[in-house]
Amino acid sequence: MASRALSVAPVLSSALAARMQRALRGFDFATDLAEEIGTARWYRGLGLMLGGIGLAVALWPGIGGGPVIASQPMDAIAREQWRSQTVQPLLYGGDTGQRMGPTSRLVPLAQAPERPSLDLSVMLAQDDSIEAMLSRAGVSAADNGAVRSALASAVPLDDIAPGTRFALHLGQAAGAGAPRPLETLSLRARFDLDLTLTRSAAGGFVVARHVLPVDSTPLRIRGVAGASVYRAARAAGAPMKAIQQFLAAIDAHLSLDQVHQGDVFDMVVDYKRAPDGQVEVGDLQYAAIESGGHMAKQLLRWGKGRDAQFYDASDMAESRATQALVMPVAGARISSGFGLRLHPILGFARMHAGTDLAAPWGAPVYAVADAVVNFVGPHGGHGNYIRLDHGGAVSTGYGHLSRFAVSPGMRVRAGQVIGYVGSTGLSTGPHLHYEVFRGGAPVDPMSVGFTVRAGVDRAELAAFRARLGQMLHVKPSAGLGPVGAQMAMRAPASAMPY
User: Fold this and answer.
1) Are 265 and 477 in contact, with CB atoms under 8 Å apart?
2) Does position 100 have pLDDT exceeding 60, yes or no?
3) How far apart, in whole angstroms, are the C-alpha atoms of residue 182 and residue 202?
4) Which residues neighbour 142 within 8 Å (Cβ) at sequence distance 6 or greater?
5) Which of 363, 381, 485, 460 is nearest to 424 (CA)?
6) Angle at 300 (CA atoms; ends 297, 306), nearest 5 degrees
7) Which of 425, 431, 448, 481 gets the highest tally of CB atoms within 10 A of its CB?
8) What does the pLDDT look like over 123-136, one tens digit per residue?
C-alpha cells in the first residue's frame, strides 16, 4: 500500500506542475499601462505593479546601529604624538614625527648665535650696479666703496657684463646689528680674466689677477643642406648665433631659395675656450655655399667695428674707378619714370620725384655709392624709407621697402645691402621708389652717374686675400679638439694692492 502511494505522488506532482504552467502561461506579468486604459487587464497590471512596490518597501532593510567600539584613553604625550602625525604639521614645513609641534619642554632662546662666516653667490643683473648688488648682499657702505675702487683699478667696470657672478665671503660681525665685514670677493671679470679681492691687514683690498690662457682657434663647420639649412646647421653643431648671422649674410647676397638640398654650407665663427670648459661664441667671419661642386657664394667679413660687412670674394678685384649709372636693384625694370604723372592711387597728376623700379618682393636693395645713413623709418606715402648722404650735397632715397638692413648713423659702402623691396606706403605692388637729390632738389636718377670701384686698392686686396686664406685653412671642428696641457695651467697670479 505504501509503495503504491509513493508511486502515485510523482504523478500528482507532475500533473499539478503542468496545470500551473498552463494557468500561468496565459497570465500577463508585464502589462503595458499605456495601452487599454480602464480595462480589466490594465487594472490587473496596475495592481501587480503596486503590489510589487509594496512588497519591496516591506522587505527594505532597516538602518540600525553597528557595534560600539569603546575609545581608548590617551594621555598628553600620546595626544601630542598623534597630533604631529596629522595634516596640521604641513603648516610648519611638511615634516612629520615627534619633533613637530612645540611642547612645554621647548625653551625659547633670548638670542640665536650667528655663524662665524657666511658665503654668498650674487649675480649682476641687467641695468644693475655693482654697488646696489653688494648692498643687497649685506656689504657695508665702506667696504662697498673700497671694492668699487679696487675693481676699477684692475678692469673697467663697464667690461663686467650682466650675468657675472660674484662669490662673497663675509666674516664675523662686530656686534648685534652690525654688518659683516667682506673678507674676500672673486669674479670672472672677462672671459680670460679672474679677479680675487682679499682684505689686507691695513683694511684695504688686494687685487689678484688670474689671466686665463684662452684657445682662440676659430670654429669651422661644414655640412650638407637638407630640406632646411637651419636644421642641417643645428644638426652639425653650429651655435645659434652663428646660424643666424650665416643665414642673414647668405640671404643678403644669394636668396635662400637658391640653396637646394644636397648643397654644402661652410662657416667659420670666432670661438674661444677657457681651461674650465667655458666657451664664448663670437661673430661669423666666413660664409659659403657650394652647389654641384662649384662655389655658388663665398663671403668674408671685412672691416672694423660697426663698419664690418660681408663681401663677396669673387667681386674683390684691383681698384679701378669709373663713372657709370648704378642701379640699386639687380635686374630691375623701370615701371615709372621721373616727372609729372597721374598718380595711380590718388587719381590726379603730380610730380613724381624719382624712378620706380619693378622688382620681386624681398629683393635686396644696394647702396649706389659710399654714404652715411641719415634716415631710416616711415616716410609718408613712401612707406619704409632710407635716406643716404653721399657727400658733396648729393643724397639718395629708397622707398616702399619691406624691411631695413641698416640703422641711422651707419657708414655703408657701395654695393652694400641696405634694405629689401616691398610695397609699403602708397604702392600698388612691390617695387622700389629710387630718388636722387643734388643740393636738396630732386633730379632724374637716370641722369646721375656714380663713381664705381670694382674692388679695393692693392694693399687692402692683399690683406683681404690673406684673411680669406686663413679662413680656408681652418680645419673643420678644429676648435672642438682637446685643449692642450699648456691651456690647463693658469698664468701666474699677480697681486696688486689697493
Assistant:
1) no
2) no
3) 14
4) none
5) 381
6) 130
7) 431
8) 998 888 889 999 99
Lowest-pLDDT choice from 76-90, 168-182, 357-371: 76-90
Question: What grid cell was written down for 297?
Answer: 657664394
**Cα 409 to Cα 246: distance, rounded to the nearest angstrom:** 24
The long-range contacts involving 120-126, CB below 8 angstroms and separated by at least 24 positions, are 120/167, 120/168, 120/170, 121/165, 121/166, 121/167, 121/168, 122/165, 122/166, 122/168, 123/163, 123/164, 123/165, 123/166, 124/160, 124/161, 124/162, 124/163, 124/164, 124/165, 124/166, 125/162, 126/162, 126/163
Whether pLDDT at 282 is above 60: yes
User: In this structure, which amino acid lies at residue 28?
Assistant: D
Listed in order, strand segments (DSSP E) in 133-230 are 165-170, 182-190, 193-199, 205-211, 219-224
Residue 345 confidence class, pLDDT cut points 50, 70, 90: low
Helices (H), 75-190: 76-84, 130-136, 141-154
Residue 482 pLDDT level (bands cut at 50, 70, 90):
low
**Euclidean distance between CA atoms 248 and 240, whole angstroms:** 12
* Helices (H) then strands (E): counts for the chain: 8, 25
272: which 3 cell numbers?
A: 674661444
Q: Which three cell numbers stand for residue 398?
A: 629708397
Q: State the pairing for strand pair 182-190/165-170.
A: antiparallel
436-465 confidence digits (pLDDT tens)? 998 888 888 887 766 555 555 677 778 888
Amino acid at position 152, single letter:
A
Decide which of 322 and 340 is more confident: 340
Q: How many CB atoms lie within 10 A of CB 412?
A: 22
**What is the rounded CA–CA span in Å between residue 205 and residue 73?**
68
Average pLDDT over every residue of 158-183:
87
Total Cβ atoms within 10 A of residue 243 = 22
